[in-house]
Amino acid sequence: MISNEKKTVSFRKILVSLTAAVGLVAIAAPAMAAGGAKHPREGNFSFEGPFGTYDQGQLQRGYKVYKEVCASCHGMDLMHFRNLGDKHGPFWNPKYPNPNDNPVVKALAKEAQVPDIDSETGEALMRDATTADKFPNPYPNATAAAAANGGAMPPDLSVMAKARHDGANYIYSLLSGYVTPPAGLKMTSAQHYNPYMAGDLTPFWEGKGHVPPGGFIAMPAPLRAGQVTYDDGTEATVDQMAKDVAAFIAWTSEPKATERKQMGFGVIIFLLLFAGITYASYRRIWKGVAH
Amino acid sequence: MSDHESTYVPKTAIERWMDTRLPIIRFGMDYANLPTPRNLNYWWTFGGILALCLMTQIITGIVLAMHYTPNTALAFASVERIMRDVNGGWLIRYVHANGASMFFIAVYLHMLRGLYYGSYKAPREMIWIVGCLIFFLMIATAFLGYVLPWGQMSFWGAEVITNLIGAIPVVGEPILIWLRGGPAIDNATLNRFFSLHYLLPFVIAGCVVLHLWALHAAGQNNPVGILIPKDRQKKDMLPFHPYFTVKDGFAIILFLILFAVFVFYQPNALGHADNYIPANPLQTPAHIVPEWYMLPFYAILRAIPDKFGGVVAMFGAIGVLFVLPWLDTSKVRSMRYRPTMRTCFIIFLFVCFGLGWCGGQLPDAPVVPGMPSFNLFDGQLNSYLWLTRLLTAYYFIFFLVLMPFLGLREKPLPVPATISEPVLPVTEQKG
């Protein structure tokens, strides 16, 4: 009997040490989670955190960068002009709860031309856009977009901040992070080096030392200082423009983020109070009942 | 319990009228008064939480289906339209998407509770088996649902998982084509996945009825794990209502707080960013991974060098749960009184987390970077591949070796004769 018990104890000891070993591996494992690209820089955006909201001035500047720079190659098919006047959006004005009445939004829509048909004859024509129209896509279809850009179709930007890890910071870092490719990197003229782009440059690295971070991107550096004239007088540095357009894309990706966070605050306060009341009634019901 | 007699007395004329025609009020009252072991702890609240999860998924899902378009050209945009233009659509969709994760958090804790306290053992085998069936249906439903937004991970996840069927010798290929509705994943696949995703939750609901029926027949287990003797029923049991409705209710609210934190503040943290890229059959993502709740099984699939072997191992990992009641030879249910088994169980917990971690890594990546290693058969020893294999081995050893072996060999601690023995003062215990 005694010897049997001893054996069990030693078996347990083995198990305990095994547990410890597995635990150590589990702690050590995350240390290797390193990707090929450089970690995005912090944009310190106003909309970060549980109480963060979009900065309307920044969204307006970002829209201008998008319209004058990005939109010449990238579509934003999920966005309509009316969205610009939505609550918490770049041109939201409480005076116009229906964004289709917002004169700024109407004027912005009118600047664009969209394809349509003549309602009498059915003939194709171009007309001024209305608030109900989508942002115009620079290309008639995906094939045309790829053909015009050396085979690489510029991706749609509507939800780009959700489609990349750490979206807003990533877009900001990528756009402002173009650097001269390190000597020893074998690349073609259609490729551009960006340390924040996902990829693995090992096969193209002929230089000394570590393989540089990042990857090749088909898009050349899109922003030049002073490229956009901001209406609010902000100086249009590359860093500023990259940050503003990243904020704008964060908004187009999650236009309801502010509404969501505000509702969440109320919901959680309610649940906490409800939990308190329920706990009190639990204590009362179970009072004197051993369990 | 099976010998729980109905104490309901219809008081009003309409109740008496109903009671002889459709005794649904009696049924409800009997459930409310169900004698429940008084020592149930908070691990027993996940049943109620899961009922809430299923209802939430069905209700939000029905609303989403009103606005969703199951067409490869329109699905992605229709989901985004729900988030943008449908009133409260962002909330409904985020509740549904995060609800799936919450459902799995709750079901895993519910299953681990059953495992720890031996709730699968006689006379509760059918509760456990129906539960395993529900779990399997949940995995199928979640997989089908993940395909519907038609993002990159939707498409490529569907590609990888349906391809597994093709690994079955001889009949695999025709079944694969039949399942996909064509030689490749396309509109026909999306249409049938949508149809099945709408169907299966109601099959789950049906299984839940069976699960509860079996629970009513066999009675609830409890942390001590003993069957409550007939003469102790009055002393050791409490009516379900109000004692456990309020306890479950409190746990549900705490769970909802966690749920709300994800829905309102981290709605995309549990998903993969690539699923916001519209599906592109011509561009394979760098790293195809399933949702977190399937990662342990995905890891087991990849641990086996042979494709069909991997499929067998993956389904075997779920299948072994069905026969668990007959694998465990122990006479003691609760691991409270099985110290050796408890240690094995804790290792099992680590192994499950480890498998989940490995499932999200590239198999060839080193576990400890920079550590010199050597090739063992088809891979570096210092790689996730071999760590996964080690963990997979323990997963199966736990069920197939430790469960039968330890049950016969270990010396359990003394088990109390009644559930009130550990809680009630000695004076109250007599009776």
Task: Describe this protein's structure.
- The complex is a heterodimer of chains A (291) and B (431).
- Chain A has 291 residues and is mainly alpha-helical.
- Chain A has 8 helices and 4 strands; from the N terminus they run H-H-H-E-E-H-H-H-E-E-H-H.
- In chain A, the strands form 2 sheets. A two-stranded antiparallel ribbon of chain A has the order 1-2. In chain A, strands 3-4 form a two-stranded antiparallel sheet.
- The radius of gyration of chain A is 28 Å and the shape is globular.
- Residues 1-9 and 24-35 of chain A have low confidence and may be disordered.
- Chain B is mostly helical and 431 residues long.
- Chain B folds into 2 domains: 32-285, Cytochrome Bc1 Complex, Chain C (Up-down Bundle), CATH 1.20.810; 289-417, plastocyanin oxidoreductase (Helix Hairpins), CATH 1.10.287.
- The relative contact order of chain B is 0.12.
- In chain B, helix 4 crosses helix 5 (89-116) and helix 7 packs antiparallel against helix 8 (172-180).
- The model of chain B has no long low-confidence stretch (mean pLDDT 94).
- In chain B, the strands form 2 sheets. In chain B, strands 1-2 form a two-stranded antiparallel sheet. Chain B has a two-stranded antiparallel ribbon with strand order 3-4.
- The chains are: A mainly alpha (291), B mainly alpha (431).
